[in-house]
Amino acid sequence: MVFSSMIFLCVFLPVVFGLHCILPGIRAKNALLILASLIFYAYGEPVYVLLLIASAFFNYMCAGAISRWHQYKKITLFITIAGNLGVLILYKYAGFLVESWNSLAGMTVPVPDIRMPIGISFFTFQAMSYVVDVYREVTERQKSFWKVLLYISFFPQLIAGPIVKYHDVEMEINQRAQTLEGVTHGIRRFIAGLSKKVLLANTLGLTADILFAAKESEVNWVVAWIAIISYVLQIYFDFSGYSDMAIGIGWMFGFHFKENFNYPYISGSIKEFWRRWHMSLSGWFREYLYIPLGGNRKGKLRTVVNKMIVFLCTGIWHGASWNFVFWGVYHGCFLLLEEYIPAIGRKGGRLKGCMQRIYALLVVAVGFVFFRTETMSRGVFWLKMMFTGFGKHPAAMSLAVQQLTPLYLLTLAAAMIASVPVKDVWKNRRGYEPVSYILSFAGLILCILYLAGGTYNPFIYFRF
Questions:
Q1: Could you tell me where the beta strands, DSSP code E, fall in 95-240?
Q2: What Å distances lie between residue 26 and 23, 178, 254, 322, CA to CA?
Q3: Pick from 324, 373, 319: nearest CA to 95
Q4: Is the pTM of this model over 0.90?
Q5: Is 318 a catalytic residue?
Q6: What pLDDT, on the 0 to 100 scale, is given for residue 463?
């Protein structure tokens, strides 16, 4: 089940929210959320719900062992990490690894046909962070398995993030309050995220899909730039939209998740971009990989190696493909460039700031070419067409013009405005509250009409 579906909007969420409001006591409310979360996951993954429960139980037992037997805590932590990564490798990377081995060694080892469970990267990373925090004594072991299961399986962040740390929601699992202000704020935030996903990301994504599926003879620089601009905006509004919906649902039920996106496309450097983009993921890698590797405390060379390891892993986390490996290393290289040439990221006047934003956007856009295409060779072709695909291409120009419909142009303009912090300026003006509620209601109606029509509504998190 996904948030942007009629069954979730009209049946699942209203029923679960209504029951959560009327049930007495935190135990009953938690039991409801566990049951609802398992139903939510089982709706699309009926078999893998057992894997989700098994993952929660395994990590619960490992955290308990670390807490009870201090003399074996290191070996237990090793078993925990190996077990979690082993499951992740089996379900997500086994086929990719075998195919790569066959290509390199010239062999024909059968490629395992294993379907990847939705959201396995998200709930595995959450589970590992809980055990590591118990090991570090950042948080105490939770004695109740059911509370650990609720933390790992809670449906708002289960399949699309953000990645939530246990100590950030521990108090609210044990005791929380639903307030009218929190519920209204949550509903408004949910609708904002739903509108990002349905009205902006889906419209832009349809154009991106059409153009990226075009024949090479139908691609020139105009088609290439329309395609990548559409995809750059699609992926931002899809990712941030799902995060907004998760945060909004959390507020509705009395949970408070941290922000996950902070207008990344206004960044003046790649370093700043990663401080604003998917902050829960970059924070996870910083806290649980970069710092344990030594961070920047062991000299310049070690810092370089550590950063490249982190971004290699970031690329691999996003998908089982050499394109994602390249994407991670690509971003790592630009971070190192900014490290060794500080002037690139150092703030200057208005002109320099403008040039820095253009630089960062261009680097991000080029990287997303390889994020979107299926193979490295296809990515290189699109990159080539972006910068050298000039000349007369009647078929390409015809294809480009076909995409520039009034709806697309209106959506593109709205997306560009929404990708910068215009709302934050407007927020402080008189009249923001009533207008925002009117816009939220209108956005919800438009989203329902769009979804009721059964139109294009992709779920791009299947690979995660």
A1: none
A2: 8, 11, 11, 46
A3: 319
A4: yes
A5: yes
A6: 63
